[in-house]
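[INFO] parsing input record for RAB3 GTPase activating protein subunit 2 (non-catalytic)
[DEBUG] input buffer:
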Amino acid sequence: MSCSLFEFCRLQEFKTVRDFLFRNEKSEPVEEKSQTEDNELSWDTSDWESAWEGGDNKEEESTSDKKVADDAGGQGEPWLQDCVVSLSPCADLLVVAREQKAAFLSAKWRTDDSGREEMTLGVSWTGTLMLLCIFTSCLNTFFRSSTGRPDWTCVVVGFTSGYVRFYTESGVLLLAQLLHEDPVLRLKCRTYEIPRHPGVTEQHEELSILYPAAMVTIDGFSLFQSLRACRNQVARAAAAGNDVIQPPPLAYKKWGLQEMDTIVDHSSVGIMTLCVFDQMKNASILGGFNASVKGSPPAMSQYVTVGSGPYTGFYYAIEGSSQPLLSHVAMAVASKLTSALFSAASGWLGWNKNKNEEEAPQKQKPKVEPATPLSIRFGLPDSRRHGESICLSPCNTLAGVTDDFGRVTLLDLARGIAIRMWKGYRDAQLGWLQVPEERSERDLSPSASLPRRHALFLIIYAPRRGILEVWAMQQGPRVGAFTVGKHCRLLYAGYRLMGVNSVTSQGWQLHTQQVCLLDPITGALRTVNIPFHLALSDKKSERAKDMHLVKKLTTLLRSRDTELDILESEARSILLDIKHPAVKKQALESLLSNKNTPVSCLVNITRALDDTLKRQEPEEVDAGLLQLCSSQLKLLQLYTDIQQLHSATDVEESDSLEGIEEELSRVAPTLQRYAQFTPRPSVSFAQDSPDSPLPAQAFLSQLECTEDEEVKVIRRSETEWNQLGNFLFWSCLCGKSPLHKVCYTLQQAGISPQQLLSLLLSVWLHREKEVLQKPEENVRNLHRLLVALSNMKGAVEESWDPQSISPWWQQVRTTCVQSHNAAAALLAALVTHRAAKASITSRADSKFQSEWEAVSLELEQWVVCVRQLEDVLVLQTLLLVPPPPGATGGATVQCSIKTLLEGGTGGIADSVSKWVFRQDISPERLKEILQKRGNKEADDNVEQRDEEERHEKEKSQEDTDRTAELLLALCQRFPHSLSPDFLFAHCCWEYVVQWNKDPEVCKYTSTHNVLSKISTSPEVSITFIVKRFSAATFLMEKVGKAPKDRLCRRDVGMGDKAMTSFLGCCVQLLNILMEADSAVEEVSAPELSIEEAWSGAEGPASIAELALEQKGVHYPLVQHHCLLASLLHAAMTFSVKVKPFSLFDSKGKNAFFRDLTTIQLMPSGDMDPGLVSVRQEFLLRVLTGWVQAIDDPSSSTPLPSSGPRAEWWPSLCLELGSLLQVNPDILRRHLVCELYSQGLDLRAEEVGNFFLVYSSFHGLRFLVDHENLLKLTLGTKTTWLGVDPHELRCPLIPLPQTSRLVGRLIEILPENHAQYSLALHLLEAVEVLTTED
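[DEBUG] output buffer:
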């Protein structure tokens, strides 16, 4: 066993993090909003506005380099090198930051394709921590826990302003403090470690912050208590909705590091005590010959810095030489804070001040305490060398230092010297790994009570060469090297959980990753696994020799050119030469898992090892190794026996199935249709084929031997389970193997009948296509296998009472109920039903010996199960009908008895409604199909047609008729669950759900409205529509006209054309609601029931049930909303400028978008004349727009039923006028005026006989063309026309139409009318002009 890289986590959304960190943020202009209108409206719009509002706009300082942004464009480019990356010790929070932006990735668990759970890191928070500061190159995360388990994670951030801020894992600021007025260079944390040896100084927790010329240390215990109190305060403030109280400052020590030119990194080694000799040596060097020496050496805190002048510096601070600093608080409270202090002294510490009282001191610049000077004790001078980083070992005795010369130097911190140096590691990244010795190797030794040994390894990542190396300490060799890429990041925390002491650490289990390697290209997080024995330098170590033999065996197994005889002999020799039992077990497992080794070699090698172990003394043999050899040898023998039986030529004769032939013939047509629609994969691989042989290695991995010498099947993934069942039983099902011998062999091996039955049913259901090719033969073989398994010992209990449920047959029934392969499940149920009936009959005959037929609860359960499976088969056949080309709706739904029962009473109708949507069946066609259920008149009419006409339509109608036939057959099997009302309700709901996913497809909404007319649940659909309806209303109110496509997509989620159609559909739906409310007393509610076989359905209530439980709508309120929808639809259709709410008074505005079942205060009485005038002007402009839309007088084609040219717009305007208290005569006059002005005389005459006023328009048209003649005829009386000729849109009208119009005018006017003589003169003038033409 050697070093290895193990991937334990994978980052999700890593590209999203990169795009967020390197995105050029630009401030977007904020759209102007009408404040007067917003203040006027009083309804709550937060629920619908939040769905379409964008994020906040944030400005970013222009400090990023353009080249860095360009480098972020490629996935494989070193964009991560320009970011600050930090990983928590438990590897469940990763922070990636650049400049002001940061992204937090939290741990998540998911299940992969093989069913295993794996950990991933997904983005949990992104944002800008502070806008006025820029991230420095240090960022640390750590856990704090009081029980040994991680409670939560804190992120510590240092800024160039000198501030240090503490955040939660969700980006909430806990604490911020200005400790020094220089940029923060590094953040280092030291946590509690359990001393492994007596006499070792116990190190306390500490957070150290490095500045260019100073260093601040914060005691870990007080920091832990402060942060915990701050977190609790933030949680309470968030729950109560109050402001977060400013917490008290931290207690810290500040050292001014002197006598060193430049400092770029540091390490806080901890408290140390010199021995007596070192104390005397230092005293004599510093004080001379007459120096005095204290009796006890003082305790000192050691700090090591790297930089230049000198290259490495050693500082020692004697404990007690500097008091902790606590700004704004008396020195009396400078001791370590506890949770009791925060709870008892929260008042006088200033935690309960009002916000106004805090604003003044917060604006003042915080007081910065001066640093205590600390001189350098000694260093490693090297004028040309500049240190770059230092990495402290877990044992605090060694440190690795990198420099600008590409060297890595190993320092002995106790002696202050360099003991080793590596070259050729430019820009190296360092980490440490401490590996404990395996516990099992020392448990039986006399020195088992001694502490466990630990091996220390230095991890060096060289990005220039893309290599990761592992070196044994202190003078050990390189024990591992990996090629990992040139853009990775080595993440080494150097600390563990905070908030732990000698008491709380007892009995805890640390699950931390010491060193992790992050690959930005794949997003993989990998850790280094190093065995302890690699640190052993003894060349005669048996374990090291055994590991060498394991490597040799691995190389031999990987070689494909080796002959089988040589492979077997060398592998046997290597395996027998290994001494250590654990290593020998590992080698045997590696051999058995190798896919290239033949079964014969595995058997011979395993037998040789087993014989060798048996010849040894029992005391010298490892029991686990011997058990492994015997169990694997037994499984290999079983694998060989099964293979030989499958290749045997003596096949047993199959028996006949007299009782099941009728059942097969009855379901044969349905099985054939089901087989036609079963999808077939277009591409398959040889290794994935079910006919491919099962390797012995896969067979061994799925079986294990128990202590009772029985074989237990291990169920892993569904694919492996099916492969094992296919290997055991498929040849028997095809009739190619002696099934009784196979069952006997499996029984002798000790496999339980229940597991064999599960494997048999699994392969039967999995290979449904092959089963349906020869159903009779396969069913016959399945029956024989079921009987053979049932006769095994332990299958059917001897004490089973036929009047109760048998667990054996219940297992088959449960599998069939859960299966999505309806045809195979039905055949298995029919066979099992016959086998169970024969078993119960034989038991009854042996017990009673009578001619009475046995009646059992078990048989009744099978009758119900067969009935349900037949229904599911018909339903699944219908669902497998391929949709028309270009149809939407997703993949085919796979159903089973279990899914239908869990779907509740509406599960069947829900599946059919999804199929109706996918097939794109129109509501009229669906209604026509369902009407054929009770009569055959349509079939009789088809037979009476002419044969030639029927032959022409036969091909085009073949698919449609087949679909209708399947749907009718299904409705006959589900008369209650698929009743018309029930099915229409579910189809209505399905269409509105699909429309909500794609609002641009207006066909969904129109189809939904048609279905709502014939269903019982139009109220349920309002849930999806009201949100977009209100958004469209407020958008038009905001812009004051028909909005453009961009605004519609932004606020409503659809284009302007789709929005127009949507508003028209809203009008239809609200009209349907009013019609339904009007007829609620005349039509009784439908009775909902379910078929007897499906009465056990348990699940959510169906759509129809929910609809019947809905309260009745308030008719005036629905009519009020329908009026609004009609006005919006008209405004969008004809592009009329209007603010919808300006057409209503305050009562009408407040009633909008309320629950339609509530009673609201509606507008009543006479409206304000000014409001009526605004309404009248809007309706007149709508009529004008409609007339302009039908501007073709010569066209004789009828108007369409929808769109701006629809013929119902005038009647709608008149209806709206009556609701809006607008005089309908004014609307009619305006309409006739517009029609005559447009030249649409016939349509004008249809509106009304108001020719006393409107005939003047043709006179004006006549005047335009024949002005001189008309003046001669009429003299000076032409001024009675009163209209500007330029206002007419169509002045050129044929004279016969003008003559006809004047004649009608003379008929209407009385002879004593003032204009009667003028009309006669006008008629004469027209006739003269007509004669001249």
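[INFO] Residues 943 and 950 are 9 Å apart (CA to CA).
[INFO] shutting down worker
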